[in-house]
Design a protein that fits this description.
422 residues; Beta-lactamase; 2 domains; five-stranded antiparallel beta sheet; five-stranded mixed beta sheet; 32% helix
Length: 422
């Protein structure tokens, strides 16, 4: 009698699983094949990681422009290669001279992180020589739009960022400008541009009520000048690398940068994290080297290797499949404690870029990264069902001509169906 009951229970359990999966497939396909999606390219992949079961697959092996879903790969790279605290700079001391080179740390004098560890370390030394030629790439990533130079989302990359590589300006009983070095370079008029293309001359409408961050036009002279201003002492530029005997100064907790990158979809932080990751592999800062290392050494079992060209997803050259997104999300789910991992992702209806979408009932059920470019919107991450399951998904939409809000509404209906059914 006991055996019969056990067999019956197993059959009921299996039938329930089959039923849930069947309901999902029955309800999701009509939405994906509706007229709304006819003139766009859509891919969807969702798996149960515990059962290693695919619940739904739709164009999941096809390549899409991922936009900021690319930051999922940047997060994975950072978690694999960077220590718990960010390497702020490398140095060695020769006689009375401190020789320094940057690692790409974006937190140095950054207005959000407000960390002064590296600054205080440098202030202890009277003679400082800076090596700036260890970053061997362009300030912009491949495929970035040339006309975006004046907008925060297209901030230049560098080996030694200061102040987030931006000018911060707002109106409060007069213009407030940081770094103060540029006070006389900000023209208070309403103008079509925020900055001249090839020089640090800025424009700000004094009737604005918000704070504006305008990318700086970088070169080695400006980096030295900004550092001298912060230290209140002269800094020389050395043409010679520091050599192999180097020590490291550490700054902020790494998770603080990961979380802000993911929550705000911050392109500058994403790009600098790839530069930082490359600093753990060689003395030359090169994001191409670290991307190749990840794909050739850490992700050798990807079924559809991506075309991965930057850290932020700003480039339309990037190409990823929904399956390749889920693959990396699954690896992080296996390796990173759940509470820590979910704290790095925006929560539906609560935080970051998901604050206004996919609300919980009543608690969050979506922890995911969004990715948006003109005519493209993607969401990839983790979905919690009412039965207590954690699913991993990637939903990618390219080339639509309708408002993105309409695409998001359809995605939300699919997410809710899976949440309530499985």
């Amino acid at each position: 009698m006991g055996k019969i009951l056990s067999i019956s229970f197993i059959l009921i359990f299996l039938l329930g699983c089959v039923s849930s999966k069947g309901i999902i497939q029955k309800n999701v396909r009509p939405v994906l094949e509706a007229q709304l999606f006819e003139n766009q390219f859509t891919g969807f992949f969702v798996v149960d990681p515990e059962k290693r079961d695919t619940l739904y697959s739709y164009n999941s092996e096809k390549y899409f422009t991922p936009a900021s879903n690319t930051k999922i790969y940047t997060l994975f790279t950072s978690l694999e290669l960077l220590p718990d605290s960010i390497p702020a700079l490398k140095y060695n001391l020769q006689n009375d001279t401190l020789f320094v080179e940057g690692t790409g740390d974006p937190s140095f004098l950054h207005p959000y992180f407000k960390d002064s560890t590296a600054l205080h370390f440098l202030k202890k030394h009277r003679v400082i020589s800076l090596y700036v030629d260890n970053f061997q790439e362009e300030h912009f990533g491949p495929g970035w739009a040339w006309g975006d130079y004046q907008w925060y989302y297209s901030t230049e990359r560098s080996a030694f960022p200061l102040y987030g590589n931006v000018l911060t300006v707002y109106e409060k009983q007069g213009l407030q400008v940081s770094p103060a070095l540029f006070e006389d370079k900000v023209i208070p008029i309403d103008y079509v541009m925020q900055r001249e293309e090839n020089e640090n001359r800025f424009y700000f409408d004094p009737t604005r009520k918000d704070t504006v961050e305008i990318p700086l036009k970088l070169d080695s002279t400006l980096i030295r000048t900004l550092l001298e201003d912060a230290l209140q002492r002269k800094v020389s530029i050395t043409p010679n690398p520091l050599g192999e005997e180097k020590s490291i100064v550490y700054s902020v907790p790494s998770d603080s940068i990961y979380a802000k990158m993911m929550m705000d979809s911050d392109n500058f932080l994403a790009e600098q994290l790839l530069i930082l990751a490359s600093s753990t592999l060689s003395d030359t800062l090169n994001t191409g080297k670290v991307r190749n290392h990840v794909l050739d050494s850490l992700l050798t079992d990807l079924r559809q290797p991506p075309r991965w060209v930057d850290g932020s997803g700003l480039s339309r050259y990037n190409l990823f499949t929904p399956q390749s997104m889920v693959h990396v999300l699954h690896l992080m789910y296996q390796r990173i404690p759940r509470q820590r991992l979910f704290s790095l992702f925006p929560a539906g209806g609560v935080s970051g870029t998901l604050e206004n979408w996919y609300p919980g009932d009543p608690t969050p059920y979506i922890y995911a990264k969004t990715g948006s470019l003109g005519n493209n919107h993607c969401v990839s991450g983790y979905l919690l069902t009412k039965s207590g399951k954690t699913l991993i998904f990637s939903f990618m939409n390219n080339h639509f001509r309708i408002p993105s809000s309409e695409v998001k509404k359809r995605m939300q209906s699919i997410f809710e169906t899976i949440r309530d059914t499985y």
